[in-house]
Write a structure and sequence with these properties.
Pfam families: TetR_N (PF00440). This is TetR/AcrR family transcriptional regulator. Keywords: DNA-binding, Transcription, Transcription regulation. InterPro entries: Homeodomain-like_sf, HTH_TetR, Tet_transcr_reg_TetR-rel_C_sf. With 202 residues, this protein is mainly α. It contains nine helices and no strands.
């Protein structure tokens, strides 16, 4: 009688977390299948890998979803209507700085690093989850600024898209600073300076 295939001997959630550390540190392209098979689930065979995830791209999509449900939640304040809009943006930026400088994880933001050279693939299907994540953050910033204008915290003539781009650009720029070892305190001080762009209405 033929022996049935061996069941998966690893915890799927843990395996996705382990893969996330690799993709986060090295990027999609530089993370090889050999690395993934060796480091997730205590080491798995190629058949087990493909049976579990289908492909490297399939695993990466799970990793991005897992990242957004955990570390990526630093942007949640942007969507918290109970927070004043300026406070929501400051809180998001400082939470992101703290997360990106955390010694317990790879430095930087996996979503931001996807456009900064650690994920050089041209495959739009691979990059789409990262674009979606960035678009969500952009929409959150725009929403906060729109609320600020409505409340009179910002002048009526404020260019919401331009101001959102200022904050988004800084948020994306934290990643290379964190990887270069710029202290969290310096980045947080820069955020305080940045928020002077939030000029109150007259």
């Amino acid at each position: 009688m033929a022996q049935m295939g061996r069941p998966r001997s690893f915890d799927r959630a843990q395996a996705v977390d382990e893969a996330m550390q690799l993709f986060w540190r090295y990027g999609y392209d530089a993370t090889s299948l050999s690395q993934l098979k060796a480091h997730i689930g205590g080491g798995i065979t190629a058949p087990s890998f493909y049976a579990a995830f289908g492909s490297k791209e399939g695993l990466f999509k799970e990793v991005v979803a897992r990242y957004m449900d955990t570390h990526g939640r630093v942007t949640d304040p942007l969507f918290d209507q109970a927070l004043e809009p300026r406070e929501a943006i400051v809180t998001t930026l400082k939470r992101s700085a703290r997360m990106q400088c955390d010694e317990g994880n790879p430095k930087g933001c996996m979503v931001a690093l996807g456009i900064l050279g650690t994920c050089a693939t041209d495959d739009s299907n691979v990059l789409e989850p990262l674009r979606v994540a960035r678009a969500r953050t952009r929409a959150g910033l725009l929403s906060c600024i729109a609320r600020g204008i409505e409340r009179g915290d910002l002048p009526e003539g404020t260019d919401a898209s331009a101001l959102a781009a200022v904050f988004e650009g800084f948020l994306l720029g934290i990643s290379p600073m964190a990887r270069d070892g710029v202290p969290q305190s310096v980045i947080e001080g820069a955020i305080d300076h940045l928020m002077t762009a939030w000029s109150p209405g007259s």
